[in-house]
Write a structure and sequence with these properties.
Blueprint lengths: L21 H36 L2 H8 L3 H7 L3 H22 L7 H18 L1 H12 L8 H18 L9 H18 L9 H12 L5 H6 L13
Helix pairs in contact: 1-2, 1-4, 1-6, 4-5, 4-6, 5-6, 5-7, 5-9, 7-8
């Protein structure tokens, strides 16, 4: 991720104010806070454009207009569109990993962890435009990035279902690999459809997904113990 640049040109200026003086420290802090606000505004405005138009059709002048900043301010923080897209994508990845980590208690079954993780990720996507834009950028990327979030999700699903099988949660006719394929395709389908209708990411939609996917693939005893609506409260989400 591109870090905030520090204006070092003043360090060699013989007429620079004494940095120990209170008014100089306040001025420097004020510039830094404005820089942080500008950067955040640019990232959010870019995310809105990337989510709506995709990478290729997003124009930087639309980003600066939405953020209410000049072209010079944009290029101070981001040399080009790819750098801006990289930051949106990396921020989205950070948000997704944060959501997933919070949904992984160590004292629940593998299947319940997978259900809770899916609810947490859907909730994050439903509420956060940067996360939605980052996932779309990653999905649409050709050679722009080597990161494949859908493949990462598929690997996680398959690994978790392998654990579930070892716990005796799956029926004898269900293999972790086959069920992982179905779950991956279905959840990615929900994410893709949500680009035009976020109802695909609601708490009810994800609960309904699990209701249909797990009946017949997990043992009846396991199914009675699972909370298909997740074990974490769905905050501010229908």
């Amino acid at each position: 991720m591109i870090l905030l640049s520090t204006d070092v040109s003043m360090l060699s200026s013989p007429s620079m104010d004494d940095p120990e003086q209170p008014h100089t420290r306040r001025a420097g802090k004020g510039r830094q806070e404005r820089s942080v606000r500008t950067r955040k505004a640019l990232v959010r405005a870019a995310a809105e454009q990337f989510e709506r138009n995709g990478y290729e059709r997003t124009r930087l002048n639309e980003v600066t207009s939405a953020a209410g900043v000049t072209s010079g301010a944009l290029h101070f923080h981001f040399p080009n569109k790819q750098d801006l897209a990289d930051v949106v994508e990396e921020t989205a990845l950070h948000h997704l990993y944060q959501a997933a980590e919070k949904a992984r208690p160590t004292d629940t079954s593998a299947l319940q962890t997978l259900i809770d993780t899916s609810h947490a990720l859907a909730r994050t996507l439903h509420q956060d435009v940067i996360t939605r834009a980052g996932l779309r950028l990653n999905s649409d990327a050709t050679n722009r990035t080597c990161l494949n979030l859908h493949h990462t999700w598929q690997t996680y699903v398959q690994h978790t279902l392998t654990r579930a099988a070892a716990q005796g949660a799956l029926t004898r006719h269900t293999t972790p690999w086959e069920l992982a394929q179905t779950i991956t395709a279905t959840t990615i389908g929900h994410e893709t459809l949500a680009r035009t209708n976020k109802n695909w990411l609601t708490h009810h939609a994800i609960t309904n997904l699990w209701h249909h996917l797990l009946h017949g693939t997990v043992t009846p005893a396991t199914l009675t113990q699972l909370h298909l609506n997740g074990t974490h409260p769905a905050r501010n989400q229908p």
